[in-house]
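Readers of this paper often ask what the protein records in our data store actually look like. Such a record has a labelled line for the sequence and another for the backbone structure tokens. The tokens are whole numbers drawn from a learned vocabulary of local backbone shapes. We quote a single record here, exactly as it is kept in our systems:
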Amino acid sequence: MNRDAVGSGPTGSPPPDGPGKPASRRRASTPRHSSTAIRRRSPWWTLCLVLAATLVFGGSLAGFAVLRLQGNVRTVGDLGDLVARDDATTTAPPDADAWEGRPLNFLVIGSDDREGENGDIGGVVGGMRSDTALLVHVSADRSRVEVVSIPRDSEVRIPACHLDRDPDGSMSAATKDKFNAAFSTGGASGDPGLAGLCTAATVAENTGIDVGADFAIVDFAGFEGMVDAIGGVRMCVPEAIRDTHRNTDLDLSAGWHDLTGDQALDYVRARYVTGSDNSDTQRIPRQQKFIAALVRKVTSSDVLTSPRSVAGFLEQGTRALTLSGDLASVRNLAGLGWRLRGLDPSDVTFVTVPAVPKAGSGRVLWSEEADLLWARLAADEPVVDPTVTTADPSATLDPPASSHPSVSPSAPPTGGATPAPALTPRTGQDPDDVLCG
């Protein structure tokens, strides 16, 4: 499919106030029959919708709008017979938080679906695959959101997964493989619910954090429409970046850019880019950077004061979503959004699972720091020490791993019980913006 060349604002200077004209042209669970024991242990575009939309829901939805948007959302049906759950949400009014008083963990999955309109965008390929996965943690007091990118090339234990909807039916064999293989394993029958469930079970198996059947899936076309509905997203690109294999049309000069939907998708998907090692992990910082920019745009006065922008964003986003568990209720998301309405971008922290390359395999292995990360999430403690400042405006967009500023393991913050892991956090306030003037 031919797409227009990527456009940009003037290099080295802020773009005009309005975005450019869009270019033409998209709790984890353990299966009841898994024989593998649980122990403590990237979809960026879904988080863009789920996180940003919940913030918009909080201040923008009336009862009739909730019902209308609920009709747009696809669900995977009832997976309750396949998942052991400790608790569930209760029915609540639109402005109430169904998860009141407890932390919320849910999984977001970017589906690399290559059929229909998605095939026109990414090229037609059969089968079900995931691109990136994120574990989202919302603190019990709703004062912070932590988003953990899970590299798709992580070598993990994939437990036995359900291959049909019969609780006593067929199960896959437990194995060790790349993380994104879990989605393909569960989705072998073409059922996105089982694909997501196997991914959620794999998270529980390797992290000890149970998200049950709470996950969200979104595709290429939905991501593009969501970005275009709010007039694009403004991004600072500190250094020129180009797709060296031309798998996408990504070719951005240094400076400010107003990315339309197709350009934004190229920005977060491109793997073979200038100056990179072509790994999955080197593009995760771009994905986190874009999510932060989208959250800022959606919660800005430019969008929130425009009924047309809000309606378009929610309409496009909900049509792109496939939801499960308690997330399948737009009313529940609206209530959560109401509680998060005062959240500042600096209260949203993005981190990546600490990992090191596995020689000659194309895989990465989680380091010991990952265990500290999961322990702090399980205890509902901040994953980084809030007294440590890590922003480095002089850092490039994708610096080598060795040059990343990080938080070193140290005594935990006041009241904490687990040492803080060494991480490279990014918040919704992007320090790179100062580099574009």
In short: The radius of gyration is 20 Å. Residues 44-60 form the longest helix (17 residues). The longest strand covers residues 130-138.
